[in-house]
Amino acid sequence: MSNIPFLRALQHQPTTHTPIWLMRQAGRYMLTYRRLREKYSLLEMVKTPELACEVTLQPIKAFQLDAAIIFSDILPLLEGMGLKLEFITGEGPHIENPIRETSDVEKLRITPPEECVAFTLAAIRLVRPELDALKIPLIGFSGAPFTLASYAIEGGSSRDHLLTKQFMYAHPDHWHMLMDKLSQMVGNYLLAQAQAGAQVLQIFDSWAGSLGRVDYQALVFPYIQKAISIARNGNVPIIYFSTGTNGFLNVIRELEVNALSIDWRMDLDTAWKIIGTNKAIQGNLDPALLFAPWSILQKQTENILRQAENIQPDRRGFIFNLGHGILQKTPEDNVKRLVDFVKNQ
Ligand code: CP3
Question: How many domains in the chain?
Fold first, then answer.
């Protein structure tokens, strides 16, 4: 049995303190990151294992976090399918040849992760010994099939995901073909990360909440489950993260994962009751609260801890996190204060 709090929480074991890590904890809000970023592009950093390793460690060195997440992004995996990806400063991701026709789906390739995302697997192997020395576990991750499909079809970020939904309704056979290909890529990628040394896996389904329950259940859920069933061969705990999906937690709770990560739009205790205590729960501070005066941030943090206690008096199975990724201009001092506070409660 591990004595690492984050791993124990994922197995519903009591912990010496409530584990905390923050989604997208490495990034532009950190001065050390911005300094490195002046010299390299995002994709250069992701694709150079030594740099990815360094960035993974930046938040670990700055704050007393309970887990590290490998530095990468959800989108490079799409390059292995034949999509051309770039990140445009100030605009975000851009895909030069998005999926617009059914024939585009037929052309998508399934490439082994050892070929198309070897850099991230190498970064995992490189960073593990450094983290082991600090007794910090490493999280590997992937985008979920729907969230990846939305980038592949829209060609970038989107507010309403309209092209994605239009494709889904107009071409059901090709939608299923697309989701099937994506679920194989995602499953293989997660499994390869576990085999390279990731001790936990997280699936980011950031845009699943743009769907209603009926479509999520029929057109998306089976493919997340397919990716999970491949990844489970890695024998490490899996966390599924989504936002805006609290209205169908009773569907999501059927995923064969160890933990669900929820957003701030529902009380944590209400969500955990729906999910059931056979799953661990992660969340759910609004990332904007890291911009609030400390008294407000503290009160809302305490409120989340109390809600966890309403379900598990010793908070076993609870991992403190944000309800979505940390925001770009977050003050580092507030991050430090939050992490120290949660660990002492
Ligand atoms: O410590 C970490 O967690 C960092 C690793 C990480 C990144 N992206 C690096 C990154 C992780 C886990 C992600 C996940 C990711 N990427 C998601 C899912 C999580 C979420 O927040 O919803 C999504 C949807 C993406 C796609 C993506 N990547 C977008 C839309 C953008 C542009 C907008 C933005 O936040 O800048 C990125 C760029 C990106 N990925 C940055 C980082 C650190 C900013 C990069 C920079 O310019 O330096």
Answer: 1
